[in-house]
Each structure stands twice: as structure tokens, then as C-alpha cells.
Design brief:
It is a single chain. By secondary structure, this protein is mainly α. Helix content is 95%, strand content 0%. The chain is built from 1 helix and no strands. The chain has one helix spanning 2-40. The longest helix is centred in the middle third of the chain and has 39 residues, at 2-40. The radius of gyration is 18 Å and the shape is rod-shaped. The mean pLDDT is 81.
């Protein structure tokens, strides 16, 4: 019973971690594009 709960928690944690890293990557890409645009103009 405990092992099943732990497995479920690991999956949930992995999904949250993936979501967070995805948002982080999008934010970095967004800021980099703004910087490049500012430098070019």
C-alpha cells in the first residue's frame, strides 16, 4: 500500500518538475529574444 502511494507521488513530482523546467525554458527564450531585438535596433 505504501509502495503504491510512493510511486504515485514520484509520478506527480516528475510531472511538476517537467512543467516547471518547461516554463523556465520558455521564460529564458522570451528574454533572450527581447535582448537580441534590443541590440539589433
Amino acid at each position: 500500500m505504501v509502495a503504491e502511494e510512493r510511486k504515485l507521488f514520484d509520478v506527480e513530482d516528475g510531472v511538476l518538475g517537467l512543467h516547471h523546467s518547461c516554463c523556465f525554458t520558455i521564460a529564458i527564450t522570451f528574454w533572450l529574444s527581447i535582448l537580441v531585438f534590443a541590440i539589433r535596433t
